[in-house]
Amino acid sequence: MPTVVYVKPDGTRQEVHLESGTTVMQGAVDNMVEGILGDCGGCCSCATCHVYVDEAWVDKVGKPDDVERDMLEFVINPKETSRLSCQIVVSDELDGLVVHLPESQY
After folding, report:
1. Total tally of structural domains belonging to the chain
2. Domain membership of residue 42 as a residue range
3. What is the pTM of this model?
C-alpha cells in the first residue's frame, strides 16, 4: 500500500498508508488528518482539501485540469504547487508522496 505523508504547518508529519485508487483527500478524511475537510466529498467544488505538493513530487503528481485550476483561484495563499487533494489519486508510483497543509486551513 502506498504511503502519503501529510505535513502540518508546524512541521509535524503524519504518514498514512492508503489503497491505490484512493484520493489524497479521502485518505486524510478517513485517517483524521487535521487541515483537510473535503466538504464537497471530492467533487472539486469547495477547495477545503487544498494542499501544496512537495517540490520533489510535482512532476509525478501532474498538473491540475481546467476545473481544478478554476477552483484553486479561490484558495487562500495559492502557490505553484497548489493542488486539491481530492484530485490526486494515489497509486504505487506515488508511494511516499509528501503534501504540505496550508496554515489557512487550521
Report:
1. 1
2. 3-105
3. 0.95
